[in-house]
Amino acid sequence: MKTVNRLPEYVLIVDDSDVQRSFIVDQCIALGIPRILQAEDGCDALAQLKASPAIEVIVLDLEMPGMDGVEALHEMARLGLNPAVILASARDSVLLNVVENMGRSLGLHLLGALQKPITQEQLLTSLSRFSAVEPCTERQAAPVPGPRVDEHEIQRALQEKEFVAYFQPKVSLLDGTLTGVEALIRWQHPTHGLLTPDRFIGLIECSRHMAETTLQMLDLALRHCRGWHEAGLPLSCSINVSADTLADTRLAEAIIARVASSGIAPRFVILEITESAIMTDLSTTLGTLARLRLKGFGLSVDDYGTGFSCMLQLSRVPCSELKIDRAFVNGASQKLHLRVLLESALDIARKLDLRVVAEGVESRDDWELLCQLGCTEAQGYFIAKPMPGDALPAWWRANQERLQAMVGIAV
Ligand code: C2E
Ligand code: CA
Ligand code: CA
């Protein structure tokens, strides 16, 4: 897979304060960024962006006399200027977060929203997002002129077994052990190369092929899972299931049958269903979910926190795990309001006696905060990106010591 792995080389720093600007410029120089431009306000910044379309990242102050940061973002979107953006402000994190979300909804590529004074580590974390992700894997990635796929191609992909499973590890924050993996679909397309689900999962969901796709992913996951168990890694494997497909009891039957014939006990299989899907379609899926739980399967509420369910609704769902959405995890160490939401999710999980996994852990700070707040499991780029199943044992051998050292356990 093509991954770019470099910091940006051409950055524009926008701040009305000379002192603040020089401070960030010095940090960029220290990080080895070769080309750095400066602007005093939004107008100046837009002029420079138009003159130098090769600028890759703009660090944008929000409060400036003249054109402020919010207006500058609107203008950038209107003019189709699309450098990646890092927001900077001394204002509170709620405000920063609102502007960050606004920027995303304008289609801009936001790398982060930092509260001043900015540390070099924070700047580096945001700058490295410029290329730290595989192109097109981020939810907010701008739509790229990509291959057009249609239902006919999906059908062929299923027949030819072109869908492959990547696996992202989940690690215990209590003792640093590898507890399980989440299976994430990829399409090894014959002409377009490896595609991430943002390019095609919506199409499959609208087609007649979602159940069959889920079963192919389950088979792939079970095969790898058996290999890991035989190699002495008793991992659980989480599978993403769209709630619509569970409304048809035949899918549940097929899952139960395939797991039974795989020799993997159902307790090692966790079905992830998004919070919003579970909450909107309670009546049709609840019975099926209860049945799967009775058979011993794990059931995880995915993207928890985005569906606005209350504790009462949650207590009616037979789930075993909450998976806290990365929007509440990533950056919670810096943003007080995220931390409050995270604490409340952990509190609910404890009260309902559920396992709790934080996803989107991207930095050591996120990891440490989660340990401090008593979260028990974590998943995210800080631990590992999704990888082919065969790569997992070697990854674990190479990373076990690093992760266990961070929970204070000597290997
Ligand atoms: P999801 O279930 O919430 O999966 C987590 C997504 O977040 C994955 O993207 C993963 O690569 C990404 N991710 C993991 N750690 C980090 C991190 O630290 N930072 C950031 N920024 N992202 C992180 P991916 O693989 O592109 O999958 C996107 C979505 O596609 C999944 O979101 C899930 O909703 C859907 N999906 C993936 N595989 C399947 C599948 O087999 N069946 C179904 N129905 N949906 C799937
Ligand atoms: Ca998931
Ligand atoms: Ca999720």
TrEMBL record:
Keyword hit for Cell inner membrane: no
Keyword check for Secreted: no
Span of domain EAL: 147-400
Membrane-spanning intervals of the chain: none
InterPro entries, A to Z: CheY-like_superfamily (IPR011006), Cyclic-di-GMP_PDE-like (IPR050706), EAL_dom (IPR001633), EAL_sf (IPR035919), Sig_transdc_resp-reg_receiver (IPR001789)
PROSITE patterns the record matches: EAL, RESPONSE_REGULATORY
Span of domain Response regulatory: 10-131
Keywords, sorted A to Z: Phosphoprotein
Gene3D superfamilies hit by this protein: 3.40.50.2300, EAL domain (3.20.20.450)
Residue numbers bearing the 4-aspartylphosphate modification: 61
SUPFAM superfamilies in the cross-refs: CheY-like, EAL domain-like
Name of this chain's protein: EAL domain-containing response regulator
Organism: Pseudomonas schmalbachii
